[in-house]
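Subject: Interface between my chains keeps coming out wrong

I've been trying for a while to get a sensible model of this assembly. When I model each chain on its own everything looks fine, but I need the whole thing in one frame so I can look at the contacts. Pasting all components below, labels as-is. Any help appreciated, I'm running out of ideas.
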Amino acid sequence: MKSTAFDDPCSADAIKNLPIPVVALNNNYKPNRYGDTIVLGLEGSANKVGVGIVKYTPAKYRANYHILSNPRKTYIAPTGQGFLPKQTATHHQNHIVALVRAALLEAFPNEDHPETLISAICFTKGPGMGAPLQSCAVCARTLSLLWKIPLVGVNHCVGHIEMGRLATGTSNPVVLYVSGGNTQVIAYSNQRYRIFGETIDIAIGNCLDRFARVIDLSNDPSPGYNIEQEAKKGTKYIPLPYVVKGMDVSFSGILTQVEQLAKTERKEDLCFSLQETLFAMLVETTERAMAHTGQTQVLIVGGVGCNKRLQEMMLQMVEERGGGVSSMDHRYCIDNGAMIAQAGIFALQFGEKTSLEDSWCTQRYRTDMVQAIWRAP
Amino acid sequence: MSILSCYVCCKERFAKAYRHPELDAKLTKSRCRSEAKILEKCTTKSKIRVPKVIRISPPDLYLEYLTGPSVKEYLQEEHVMMVVAVATTTITKSNILDLAQQIGQLVGRLHNIGIVHGDLTTSNMMVLEVNDDSNTLIDFGLSKSTFSVEEQAVDLYVLERALLSTHPELPENFFDHILEKYSKKRKNLSQTTLQRLEQVRMRGRKRECFG
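Reply #2:
Try treating it as a single job with all components included. I did that and got this:
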């Protein structure tokens, strides 16, 4: 069997969270018979469905979080088409049980009853596409009732951020969250992840995906990856609109322009110019957020964070300011179950859980609506 | 040019290595020129106290040097004071709301002469030590000459969010005080801008789909 979790445990001290309350005091959950707290996370807000298992070991000086398994399946839409809610939900429903089994088997190969080691089920409450979210939530509720353990609803964006902080050991970075559905520059203050700037129309990944469809690029492995490959062959810079409105950015006008140009210009040059323009806008807003908050570390999360050119530009900017950048890691860039488990275990350990009645999902769930009770105010 | 009666500072625009050189050159040049033009406009068309433009040589801009803390620094100091002297909070609280009114007035004046600032954060506002008009705006690099209601609304929206994200400790009605004074300054024009502000706020709220 191919391993889906190959990273070392991450130190819990490096990220400077508040001290974890004593378990007996909040009576929220039970650590397992070995004294560890293990949770299972379910993610399925977009075209990926994943199950991750995360373990917390409370050793006195080496307390750590460890991903035990993290299998995932991706729904790839036919060329020229995006992923639609109905088909995506069906895909998730078809795979989720097998993924839960695979995750348990990999995490606990020699256990007859691995479910007895798990303290809670975490699931994505939102934001995302309704139907795929619900498919995973149904699975989460079932497991919670079956195994008689609590549920924890998790904000997808906070999942990316928490896994990012932990995996890189950066306690308080400025976060650039770039994916198919989100484009946000986020800075933490007073127990909330505050949105500094965001897109006022379409997300960056959406812009790239839709342009990929216009020029007939495949969705396999992802449209963004294929644009990146085309862009490497581009030589000519074609001026496009550069739309920064305050801290916010806007992409829809650029998309219209580049779609028009697709009739006359080479697609390699267009991919190149599109990337240069879009990423420059993002790096500039991130830089301004850094200047305003006085922070020096940047964390890029979300699927578009896999783009090498974006990473390179961000690094150039951050190095000039004497800071560091953490970009591209499979644990927090691409959607997966472990990141939901990670944000969920923080909430659980600090006294939060979701009752069955409240275990609904929502397509709209802003990052700044979550109170990060595990962080110092 | 006559003899300078002020300290001068140079606003250097460094080439951004991460940007494509053509894009960088275009942005740098246009922002430098437009900043100078808008600063001049502020001085000639209104009473807004901004740094005087001494010399324009793109990509550098020589400006009058002003002393004083940024509003961000000022508010953070005030916050500390508020915590220390709980008994006298009423006094400092009213100081803070005075500041809100001054900010509202400043932005109102700016919009009245057809300028949107483009980057209204508390790092870009200064509380001057000299007691003339007591505070000022800097960094007009992203400013535009326009009477567009949309742009004015976005300007206010940026300010609102900058306050929320950097100064969560401020009294809740801080922004309301800004808007109140802003409306007074803008007279009958404020209505359309504030209505648009409502729409701009909704846009951000709606724009939260899947990831």
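Reply #3:
Confirming on my end. The first helix of chain A runs from residue 23 to 26.
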